[in-house]
């Protein structure tokens, strides 16, 4: 804009509509530039459920990982004389049928459940984004990869997960040790069976993005495909990926607990929330609280993550933001 | 429309074949041996004969072909024989369970009624609850009713059935003593009293399953209604002076039902999968429990058949959903 254009010779004659828009941009220039993440955060703050969910999730994760530093009873320590105790100061959540402290077991179980959830989510996210970007960006991969996604969606997932647990449990625990082998097995089983929604969403976004001018500009200055994907495509599909990430944690935690509950997850002396719940079911009539605490922990974690995802989806959607 | 249906139908065949191959190959890797239970005193050559009798001696592709033939050719014949009293399948080898040494399909047929009763009722109940909730919370968006609906469906998403099931057992069965915690399959409904008993034992599993389905369906119904409520045709309908009831319940609802109907169709097979856990909690001896039992007992033919039945159901209802969408929304027919 030159000075000549900004200069209005006769203010009385100029219609109001031409004078007013000039004032708008001028004023906005004085505002400091706002980053995208600042906007996202401002929108996220207005979603009360999401804030509550975020706080709750951080609280649960922190107490599960940091709790054992303050509550240093060994979760596998049996004390048969103190079995089946109710809540007391020595054992706030009581003890189980072998006298193991329930609070310590809840923390240890939570560590496993949360880390399985996060690791499986990361794996599913990686697979999903990889396949989604590949299918969306390269036309020749689109057909086969999307057929593959459809095929995976048509598989009966829970039965297949159970079958996978049955089949690979022994070879993997022989190769990596019982607990680590099972951890790898559960994480990869959940990851392999839950990448499809992410792949579909990412592919759709990439299809639209790659026709945009900035991709054309990058290509015209000779940027390689991998560079375009890393610099221009991936940052722009980050928001759907983040939303799937939160929802993925929720699904993974529920799936892991379901496997443990059905007796096909971690071994009995290795607590996870689902395992603790299943152990508690045997004593349902006498000590219902033993089912209640692990179940509540699973439900609260998943609930908080779901609300977090809900708020994140709203915050990352530029159409909703600023309203 | 017919070509559309036929095209989807043709596409379903390779999908099913691929899935059956995946299931077959996955189970081929199984370390379990059906001869593990046979006493050690049985000489090796007898064991080898027994393995062959179970059809284990041949190469993999022949066994795969045999299994496909058994599943798609012989079992339907058995069904036809059963219905019309013919003898097409006489002498043919059927898929035999390693656990019970009886045909797998016979056991499946025994188990299906329990699953259909519990799961089917839950699905119907859930649809009846979810649709009105979805409609009203979309119509009054951000009202307290909508907020409540959001919260309840979040709970439905988040509380896994193995917790909600156990919770209702503690509340209604242990503390209040209203309903039995174990589903009695031998109960025959003959008169009013046995009908009431049946109703009592069904309430809890149906409640648990229906909560989950309601959560998903009502969210979906709400989103679909919200998409339509701001459309131009709604404004036109209001401008014509139609009553609010007609606008919402006729104009908006009919258009919003299109995706919801397909989601309902898509959800039917996943109910069989999801019911594995609920059946385990309430000890309903339906198909889900059969699968768990077969997995624990290493009964490969049973696991293969059941997983494949689930896969067939998923593909079938995907097809139904596609065709339904095509019928309800003519715009997508020719893409």
Beginning-to-end CA distance, first to last residue of chain B: 11 Å
| SSE run of chain A | HHHHHHHHHHHHHH
Overall morphology of chain A: globular
Fraction of residues in H or I helices of chain B = over 70%
Oligomer: heterodimer
Q: Radius of gyration of chain B from the CA trace?
A: 24 Å
Q: What percent of residues of chain A are in strands?
A: under 5%
CATH architectural type of the domain at 113-321 in chain A: Orthogonal Bundle
Extended strand count of chain B: 0
The largest sheet of chain A, given as strand count, sense and whether it forms a barrel, is:
none
Q: Return residue spans of chain A where pLDDT drops below 50 for at least 5 consecutive residues.
A: 1-24
Q: Gyration radius of chain A, to the nearest Å?
A: 27 Å
Overall pLDDT confidence of chain A: 79
**Could you name the CATH homologous superfamily of the domain at 113-321 in chain A?**
MetI-like
CATH topology (fold) name of the domain at 113-321 in chain A: MetI-like fold
Using CB atoms under 8 Å apart, which protein chain pair has the greatest interface? A-B, 45 and 44 residues
Shape of chain B: globular
Give the DSSP E fraction of chain B (strand runs of 2 or more residues).
under 5%
Largest sheet of chain B: none
The count of helical stretches of chain B stands at 11
């Amino acid at each position: 804009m030159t000075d000549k254009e900004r200069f209005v010779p006769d203010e009385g004659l100029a219609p109001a509509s031409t004078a007013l828009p000039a004032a708008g941009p001028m004023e906005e220039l004085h505002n400091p530039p706002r980053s995208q993440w600042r906007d996202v955060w401002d929108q996220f703050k207005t979603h009360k459920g999401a804030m509550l969910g975020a706080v709750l999730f951080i609280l649960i994760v922190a107490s599960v990982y940091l709790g054992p530093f303050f509550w240093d009873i060994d979760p596998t320590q049996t004390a048969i004389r103190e079995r089946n105790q109710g809540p007391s100061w020595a054992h706030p959540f009581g003890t189980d049928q072998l006298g193991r402290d329930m609070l310590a077991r809840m923390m240890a179980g939570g560590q496993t459940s949360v880390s399985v959830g996060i690791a499986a989510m990361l794996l599913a996210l990686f697979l999903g984004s990889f396949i989604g970007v590949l299918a969306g960006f390269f036309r020749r991969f689109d057909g086969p990869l999307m057929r593959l996604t459809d095929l995976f969606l048509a598989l009966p997932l829970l039965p297949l997960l159970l079958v996978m647990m049955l089949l690979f449990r022994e070879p993997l625990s022989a190769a990596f040790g019982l607990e680590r082998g099972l951890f790898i097995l559960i994480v990869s089983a959940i990851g392999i069976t839950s990448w499809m929604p992410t792949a579909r969403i990412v592919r759709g976004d990439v299809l639209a993005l790659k026709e945009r001018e900035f991709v054309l500009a990058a290509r015209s200055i000779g940027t390689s495909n991998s560079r375009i994907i890393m610099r221009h495509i991936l940052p722009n599909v980050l928001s759907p990926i983040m939303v799937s990430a939160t929802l993925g944690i929720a699904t993974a935690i529920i799936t892991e607990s379901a496997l443990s509950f059905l007796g096909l997850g971690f071994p009995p002396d290795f607590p996870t929330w689902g395992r603790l719940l299943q152990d508690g079911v045997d004593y349902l009539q006498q000590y219902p609280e033993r089912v209640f605490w692990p179940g509540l922990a699973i439900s609260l974690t998943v609930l908080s993550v779901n609300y977090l995802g809900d708020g994140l989806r709203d915050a990352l959607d530029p159409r909703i933001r600023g309203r | 429309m017919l070509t559309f249906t036929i095209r989807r139908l043709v596409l379903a065949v390779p999908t099913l074949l691929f899935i059956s191959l995946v299931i077959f190959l996955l189970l081929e890797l199984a370390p379990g041996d059906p001869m593990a239970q046979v006493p050690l005193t049985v000489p090796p050559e007898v064991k080898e004969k027994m393995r062959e009798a179970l059809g284990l001696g041949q190469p993999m592709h022949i066994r795969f072909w045999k299994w496909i033939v058994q599943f798609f050719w012989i079992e339907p014949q058995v069904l036809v024989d059963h219905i019309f009293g013919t003898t097409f399948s006489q002498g043919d080898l059927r898929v035999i369970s390693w656990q019970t040494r009886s045909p797998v399909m016979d056991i499946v047929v025994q188990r299906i009624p329990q699953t259909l009763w519990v799961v089917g009722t839950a699905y119907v109940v859930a649809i009846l609850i979810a649709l009105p909730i979805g409609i009203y919370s979309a119509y009054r968006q951000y009202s307290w009713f909508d907020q409540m609906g959001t919260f309840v469906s979040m709970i439905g998403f988040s509380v896994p059935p193995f917790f909600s099931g156990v919770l209702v057992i503690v509340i209604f069965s242990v503390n209040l003593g209203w309903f039995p915690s174990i589903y009695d399959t031998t109960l025959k409904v003959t008169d009013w009293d046995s009908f009431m008993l049946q109703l009592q034992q069904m309430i809890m599993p149906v409640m648990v399953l229906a909560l989950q389905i309601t959560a998903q369906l009502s969210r979906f119904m709400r989103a679909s209604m919200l998409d339509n409520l701001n459309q131009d045709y709604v404004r036109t309908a209001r401008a014509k002076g139609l009553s609010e009831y007609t606008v919402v319940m006729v104009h908006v609802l009919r258009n919003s039902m299109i995706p919801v109907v397909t989601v309902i169709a898509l959800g039917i097979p996943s109910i069989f999968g999801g019911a594995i856990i609920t059946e385990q909690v309430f000890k309903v001896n339906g198909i889900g429990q059969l699968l768990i039992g077969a997995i624990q007992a290493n009964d490969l033919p049973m696991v293969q058949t059941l997983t494949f039945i689930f896969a067939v159901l998923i593909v079938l209802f995907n097809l139904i959903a596609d065709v339904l969408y095509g019928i309800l929304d003519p715009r997508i027919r020719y893409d």
